[in-house]
Amino acid sequence: THSIRVGQESAKKAIGFIEAITLIAKEEGIKGYWKGNLPQVIRVLPYSAVQLFAYETYKKLFKGKDGELSVIGRLAAGACAGMTSTFVTYPLDVLRLRLAVEPGYQTMSQVALNMLREEGFSSFYHGLGPALIGIAPYIAVNFCIFDLVKKALPEKYRQKTQTSLLTAVVSAGVATLTCYPLDTIRRQMQMKGTPYKSVIDAFAGIVERDGVTGLYRGFVPNALKTLPNSSIRLTTFDIVKRIIAGSEKEFQRITEENRKKQNHNAKIE
């Protein structure tokens, strides 16, 4: 809610992180900080699942003839995974934003019905272009750095949870700093009554109104949300992959032992 409110209010006047916190508390109380959180929770589950599954799938598709995945291949896999998950769950993201910043709505269904009546089905995909453009480099950089750093570490460090978490924080930080302006443009284009018709139009308008710093309006609250979110997600996924890989190896070992025992018993008989 903080980062959305900062971005929204910047269209009217300059407002910082602390000012946004104070404004929300004054106008809406404590519950205002969690406004629009339910749609976010509903969205993030399929979003994360689709994204991580798609990334592993695309990595297999982009492997070279030698079976290795190049840096370009990792970047492409991350970009495609980010765009796939964003496209699938984008209507939920629009509903979350509208519910958080537009007064008078209490539920997602109210927002959805009103959007259908007044703006049509296409309104659920307003700003999809900049969202795809923004998420593609973000996930590409985030996942690629995470994979490459982990791959470069000695084996004894790769298996540690602390290593996964630290690597995830670094990769998420670099990706967030690099790609945040595109996220600002996306949010501006999602707003009802936005004057912007294209990414270039929004970029020029924001810079003209707020300067280059306007592209990073709301960066601090966004980073405070994104860094732990992305880091925990990647770390958890990495741990689960290791557990599954270990279980598969153990299963194969047990299967092989049983096969050898059966062959041995057959020879004795």
Automatic annotation (TrEMBL):
It is a multi-pass membrane protein. The keyword Cell inner membrane does not apply. One of its GO terms (molecular function) is ATP transmembrane transporter activity. PROSITE patterns: SOLCAR (PS50920). Solcar repeats lie at residues 1-61, 69-152, 159-243. Keywords: Chloroplast, Membrane, Plastid, Repeat, Transit peptide, Transmembrane, Transmembrane helix, Transport. GO terms for cellular component: chloroplast envelope; thylakoid membrane. InterPro entries: MCP, MCP_dom_sf, MCP_transmembrane. The chain crosses the membrane at residues 124-149, 161-182. It holds the Pfam family Mito_carr. It is found in: Membrane; Plastid, Chloroplast envelope. Belongs to the mitochondrial carrier (TC 2.A.29) family. This is Uncharacterized protein. It comes from Citrus sinensis.
